Every structure is written in C-alpha cells, then in structure tokens.
Amino acid sequence: MKLKIVLEPSPEGGYTAFVPSLPGCISEGDTLEEALENIREAIDLYLEPVEDDFIIDQKVIIQEIEV
4: which DSSP letter? Predict the structure, then answer.
C-alpha cells in the first residue's frame, strides 16, 4: 500500500507529519527521517484492527481482505 505523507516544518523545530487519507493519523520528529519513521509507526497502529471495534452479533459475518 502506498500513502502520501505531508511533512510540514514545525514552528518549534522539527517536522509534523500527517496522512491526508487517514484522518487523525499525525506524528512528528526532530528530523525528516525521524518524522517519517514515526509516521510509519502511526500508520501501522492506525490500520491495526482492534477486537473491541467489532460488535459481535450472531448475524454478523467478518471477513479479511488484503489491500
């Protein structure tokens, strides 16, 4: 999967990184490299499924797809 990352210089120094296609997926770093590393981790956590996200009902079918 390829995602576009926006990196903006922060007024305090360093960079803020966010992913426009993943609302709320934001991170930061003191350098570009650190900001990219941190946003990669944020993306992994953002996309990680959490069992509590599912409301299990006997009529529900859960499937997994790869994107």
Answer: -
d(CA 24, CA 67): 20
Write down the pTM of the prediction.
0.73
Block residue for tokens 């006997």? 58
Contact 3, 21 (CB under 8 A): yes
Q: Say if 26 falls within a structural domain.
A: yes
At position 61, the amino acid (one-letter code) is I
pLDDT in tens, 4-45: 999 999 999 999 999 999 999 999 999 999 999 999 999 999
Is 19 inside a domain boundary?
yes
Name the 3-class secondary structure at 23.
coil
